[in-house]
Amino acid sequence: MEFFDFGTIFFLIAAVVIFFQLRNVLGRRTGNERPPFDPYTAARNKPQDANGKPENVVSLPQRKRVAGEPAEDAYVAIDAFAKPGTDLNKGLRAIKDADASFEPKVFVEGAKMAYEMIVMAYADGDRKTLKNLLSREVFDGFVAAIADREGRSEKIQSSFVGIDKADIVSAEMKGGEAHVTLRIVSELISATRDKAGEVIDGDPETVAEVKDVWTFARDTRSRDPNWKLVATEEED
């Protein structure tokens, strides 16, 4: 029978100690974890190569701009989105001037994601999710409605089918705050049940068309990139 000599045993113990130390270090939070998901800016994230540049993109030399001079192509995406000279185009341009990263198409995609999250969070009574997506005034209104529903032991059974249309109908700057209003047409299966489980509103078997006019806002002077729902209106 062979036996380990003293040197072999020493290196074996050292390897075990190093393994546990590495595991402890790798398991710790460093403060560099990914931030919370932001539905309004997620669409801007593109795959990058090893050098940190977007894949399949050729960088061209650009003329240096004088401080305060708008970029020549700053409004190209906005002019393609809304007819130049219209109030909507002017409002979107004003937001672009205040926030160079603003892109209307990207915003709409993010707003659609936020719409679904808010609708389902309201149905589920998920106050935590709502708090991150709503202004103080709208949040208080939603929470009051949820509390009233819970007080009657009622529950909403809801399934989100999808969004048929989401169009920006107005945009403007109010001081340093950008406001964008969308008309959203969605399909939803929803029914409210009472304490006994009986349906008292809606239909759990029927897809209903819902038309909403929602306004989102963001303080462009803040480093916080998140937009919040500041006004809701249901269209007849």
UniProtKB/TrEMBL annotation:
Residues 33-56 are annotated as: Disordered. Keywords: Membrane, Transit peptide, Transmembrane, Transmembrane helix. SMART domains: Tim44. The chain crosses the membrane at residues 6-26. It comes from the Bacteria. Residues 88-234 form the Tim44-like domain. It holds the Pfam family Tim44. It is found in: Membrane. Belongs to the Tim44 family. This is Tim44 domain-containing protein.
